[in-house]
Each structure stands twice: as structure tokens, then as C-alpha cells.
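thought: user wants a sequence for this fold. calling inverse folding tool.
action: design(structure=
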């Protein structure tokens, strides 16, 4: 089997719950992605006028999730069909992957140039999957709204849930922030990822994460997909196993 990740990279992902890979995505497909969401953007957002981007979608924390074209073959090809990402997913999860009908979509974070940075906020995704991928389809500078992770929090959150992959907290509370686990993760210094068009961030499904505050002068443009093993539906509601890497042969064998 092709093993694109080094031992050091696998260990970094195991310990931190995320990993950045550089220059992975196809240039032509990234250009098509940028064109697609600009074609769909509201008329007040003018592609040739950066001033029109500042403060856009302020009522939704400056984000826009464009999903309408997520099932088109070229969009699926951008992430799921990428040869490097396929090889990485098979290295970590094994050879049998679920074939998707769509990706998550194009996730944009618009500039908010307020001098005071907003507090970083995290969440854990509620749907079942294994390996998340965030692909930057345009350059993302530091403080440019990059995908933000709380390193190591996947290990804190793993046993916070009754089941292996579904969102079923052990402590049934309306406010999950008022638990020892969430308070522990709040003490972790978040990492705001950034990079060039074509870079991707891999992340474990239980890691605390969120969108960073975009204090740059450009729109953060990213595409998201969740790699899943073919047996996910059969095991997703099982009790959380003691070994968090049970379903990750590329890590448990290391």
C-alpha cells in the first residue's frame, strides 16, 4: 500500500489530532471552485472590490457555507478523488472507504478587520465520520480566518461520548461547557492554521475546532470533506471502545 505519510507525520496526527499537508490540491479544480462560489455570491459582494467583502454575513459570524454544488463530480474529485488524500486516508483508515455522493461544500470566512480579536470558540461535530479534511482553495494568511484546532483535545473528547462516532455525551447537560472536559480543553492554546492555495488540514473527528477570526483583507475559501471507513454505519452507535485507534490501522499498528 502507498504510504505517503512519514512515521513522524503519523505520530504528530496521533498526538495532536491534526496535520497540515502542503500543495496537495489540483490547481484547475481550485480555480473552478473559486469561480463557482463567486458566481453564486450575492450581488453586493463584488469580486473585484475587496472593500465589499469586509463585514459580509455579519449576522452569521462572518461565514457562508455554500453547499449547492457539493454533489457535482468535479467537486467530489477535488477532495475525495485527490490521489494524495486517497492514499493518506487508506494509510490511516485501511483500504475500504465509503464512496461519497457529495462533499460538505465551500466554506468562506469574510474579513472582519475589527482591531479587537474575537475569542476563539470551538465545537465538536455532531455527525459521524473518521477523518476530516479542510482544503484551502486560495491563500490564507495568518489571522486570515483559518481552520482552528485545539491540539490534543481529540483525546479529551474521545471518552466524553457514550458512542464511538455519534454525538451522545456521557453527561446529559444543556450546557456542555460546564464540564471538566470542556474546561480542560479551554486551557489549550488553539492553533490557527494558514497556508497557500492547495494546502490541506487533516483532523480527527473528535477534535475541538472552529473558524478563526479573519482579520485579513481577503475571503478565506476552503472546501471540506469527511473520509469514512465503509463500515462506519455498522459501528457508529457502538459503545466507545477503550482504544481510540481501534478503527485506524495506520495508527494502531505504529
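)
observation: tool returned 254 residues.
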Amino acid at each position: 500500500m502507498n504510504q505517503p505519510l512519514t512515521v513522524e507525520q503519523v505520530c504528530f496526527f496521533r498526538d495532536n489530532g491534526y496535520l497540515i499537508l502542503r500543495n496537495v490540491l489540483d490547481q484547475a479544480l481550485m480555480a473552478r471552485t473559486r469561480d463557482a462560489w463567486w458566481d453564486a455570491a450575492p450581488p453586493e459582494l463584488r469580486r473585484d472590490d475587496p472593500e465589499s467583502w469586509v463585514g459580509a454575513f455579519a449576522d452569521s459570524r462572518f461565514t457562508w457555507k455554500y453547499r449547492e454544488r457539493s454533489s457535482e463530480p468535479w467537486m467530489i474529485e477535488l477532495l475525495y478523488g485527490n490521489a494524495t488524500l486517497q492514499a493518506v486516508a487508506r494509510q490511516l483508515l485501511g483500504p475500504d472507504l465509503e464512496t461519497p455522493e457529495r462533499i460538505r461544500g465551500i466554506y468562506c470566512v469574510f474579513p472582519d478587520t475589527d482591531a479587537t480579536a474575537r475569542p476563539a470558540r470551538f465545537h465538536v461535530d455532531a455527525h459521524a465520520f473518521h477523518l476530516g479534511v479542510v482544503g484551502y482553495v486560495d491563500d490564507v494568511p495568518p489571522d486570515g480566518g483559518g481552520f482552528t484546532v485545539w491540539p490534543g483535545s481529540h483525546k479529551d473528547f474521545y471518552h466524553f461520548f457514550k458512542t464511538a462516532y455519534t454525538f451522545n455525551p456521557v453527561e446529559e447537560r444543556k450546557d456542555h461547557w460546564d464540564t471538566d472536559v470542556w474546561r480542560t480543553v479551554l486551557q489549550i492554546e488553539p492553533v490557527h492554521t494558514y497556508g497557500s492555495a492547495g494546502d490541506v488540514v487533516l483532523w480527527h473527528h473528535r477534535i475541538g475546532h472552529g473558524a478563526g477570526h479573519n482579520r485579513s483583507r481577503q475571503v478565506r475559501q476552503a472546501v471540506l470533506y469527511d473520509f469514512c471507513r465503509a463500515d462506519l454505519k455498522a459501528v457508529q452507535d457502538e459503545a466507545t471502545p477503550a482504544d481510540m485507534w481501534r478503527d485506524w490501522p495506520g495508527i494502531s499498528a505504529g
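thought: summarizing for user.
answer: Here is the designed sequence. The two ends are 15 Å apart (CA to CA).
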